[in-house]
Design a protein that fits this description.
CATH topology of one domain: Nucleotidyltransferase, domain 5
Radius of gyration: 25 Å
Number of helices: 9
Largest sheet: 7 strands, mixed
Oligomer: single chain
CATH class of one domain: Alpha Beta
């Protein structure tokens, strides 16, 4: 059987397109493409990194049709040290905001946190979150009103959300040029000390509470965008658990924004929203409305059939394993 050449292999779903690479390549090129020490192309290395983030596999499990995992890991560390992904996320956020008709820098943000389950690799810095009943690391996230990433901090799960407000507000104001005035938070950020920490950097906290009488799922105004961002991140298996030990060389109190988690989120944002025609344009909205209008309505589901009648206790008694009238299963 003849072996297929790498050029004829079917690409992975995470493989970057030509239009995406035209946007990303200037941010990732730290030296000339034809440098004598370069053995593998940057595009192949970046495709390997995107596959790794999407699949969530360990570095040494990288498929053989990609460059060696040592090459991909070393180049990723160079990109992180040079701040390539932070610059990429910053410019991409401004571009997407202008596409939606907004200003490049936001004036309001949403803040929230989530706890990631620890692994044997990251268990040394893990903490126990009593509210979630989970041991791991906590990701503190700040997004704008469209869900685009602004700031990120990773701490142990036992760290309080209120204690991170001051550092997050300082980072957001330094990134946007002191344009942010309002932050939507949940009830975990209440308290006079938390409001004072945010006010030192020109931020006013607005606590979005659940209605007193609610039934089922309730979509919280303004704050649901950060929950949606967490749902986007959960699609990438590399972000499902805290499985990296790269922060052991840093202080245990907090991991800087140049951690691999920030790298993964940057890859997520660039791969999901970097499209030729943005979904926020009027033409795209009209096409989406027409598609929804022509959607075929599915017939209603039939009501479930009634439970079989039990000869032992009546019709309402379901057949269980210990019921005397239960029919014996056939011998296999």
């Amino acid at each position: 059987m003849r072996r297929r050449s790498p050029a004829k292999r079917k690409p992975y779903p995470s493989t970057i397109t030509d239009e995406e690479w035209a946007f990303v390549a200037p941010y990732l090129t730290l030296c000339r493409e034809d440098a004598p020490q370069r053995e593998y192309s940057l595009r192949a290395v970046y495709n390997a990194l995107r596959w790794l983030v999407r699949a969530g596999a360990p570095w040494r499990y990288l498929p053989n049709d990609f460059p060696p995992w040592e090459i991909v890991y070393q180049q990723t560390q160079r990109w992180i040290a040079a701040g390539c992904f932070e610059t990429l996320v910053h410019d991409l956020r401004a571009l997407l905001r202008m596409t939606e008709g907004r200003a490049p820098t936001p004036t309001a943000v949403a803040v929230d946190s989530r706890t990631l389950q620890s692994t044997p690799e990251s268990g040394a810095r893990a903490g126990y979150d009593g509210a979630k009943r989970k041991k791991g690391s906590k990701t503190h996230l700040v997004v704008d009103t469209l869900g685009h990433l602004l700031a990120l901090r990773v701490t142990a799960a036992d760290a309080q959300d209120r204690a991170q407000v001051g550092a997050l507000a300082k980072e957001v104001q330094a990134l946007t040029g002191d344009t942010v005035e309002l932050a939507y938070v949940d009830q975990g950020y209440t308290g006079a000390a938390t409001a004072a920490d945010a006010a030192q950097h020109g931020l006013a906290l607005e606590v979005v509470k659940l209605p007193e009488a609610k039934r089922g799922f309730v979509l919280l105004p303004r704050r649901w965008v950060v929950e949606r961002s967490f749902a986007w991140f959960a699609r990438f298996r590399r972000l499902a658990r805290d499985n990296t030990n790269a922060s052991r060389r840093r202080s245990p109190g907090c991991i800087s924004s140049r951690s691999p988690t920030c790298c993964c989120i940057a890859l997520l944002r660039s791969s999901k929203f970097l499209t030729p025609s943005s979904a926020g344009t009027p033409a795209a909205r009209v096409a989406l409305s027409a598609r929804r209008a022509t959607r075929v309505t599915r017939p209603a589901r039939r009501a479930p059939s009634a439970a079989p009648k039990c000869r032992h206790r009546g019709a309402r008694h379901p057949w269980r394993r210990g019921c005397p009238s239960r029919r014996p299963s056939p011998v296999r």
